[in-house]
């Protein structure tokens, strides 16, 4: 099968739920996203800031990052920039109340999986996460 993942990768994914980092300065948003992901069998790891995420020695264990854009001290775009500067290829999904088209374009140019404007439908977010975890662009249909 062309494009199939080696069995060891599939087994690893089945034995260990993906870890999704949630970075948002709004505690209610963090809690809601964590609850949604946990119901879906994913491990959610909440962070109140980009700095807290970067300082966590477990950050490299994350399989995807869901982040807000507008946050004090370090916004989501700066977080994405710092990750890329470190050589990280961690998939990033932005969820924000901002309708800043320039910021959106910059995020996508720097490799963001997608950009959602709040409120985001649960199924849309879960679809983007599945795409990110499968290594696809969020706008590509799933392969066979």
From TrEMBL:
Write the record's keywords in alphabetical order, separated by commas: Phosphoprotein
SUPFAM superfamilies attached to this UniProt entry: CheY-like
Biological process (GO) annotations? Answer: phosphorelay signal transduction system
* Name of this chain's protein: Response regulator
Lineage start? Bacteria, Pseudomonadati, Pseudomonadota, Alphaproteobacteria, Sphingomonadales
The question of whether Phosphoprotein is a record keyword is answered with yes
The residues that cross the membrane are none
Q: Residues bearing 4-aspartylphosphate?
A: 68
- Presence of keyword Transcription regulation: no
In this protein, which residues make up the domain named Response regulatory?
19-133
InterPro entries per the record?
Bact_response_regulator (IPR050595), CheY-like_superfamily (IPR011006), Sig_transdc_resp-reg_receiver (IPR001789)
């Amino acid at each position: 099968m062309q494009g199939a993942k080696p069995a060891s990768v599939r087994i690893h994914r089945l034995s260990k739920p993906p870890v999704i980092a949630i970075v948002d300065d709004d505690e209610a948003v963090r809690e809601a996203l964590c609850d949604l992901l946990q119901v879906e069998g994913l491990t959610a790891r909440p962070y109140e800031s980009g700095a807290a995420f970067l300082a966590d020695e477990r950050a490299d264990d994350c399989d995807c990052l869901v982040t807000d854009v507008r946050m004090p001290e370090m916004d989501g775009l700066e977080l994405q920039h710092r990750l890329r500067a470190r050589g990280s290829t961690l998939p990033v999904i932005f969820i924000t109340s901002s309708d800043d088209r320039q910021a959106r374009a910059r995020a996508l140019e720097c490799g963001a999986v997608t950009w959602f404007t709040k409120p985001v439908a649960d199924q849309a977010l879960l679809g983007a996460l599945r795409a990110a975890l499968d290594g696809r662009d969020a706008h590509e249909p799933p392969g066979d």
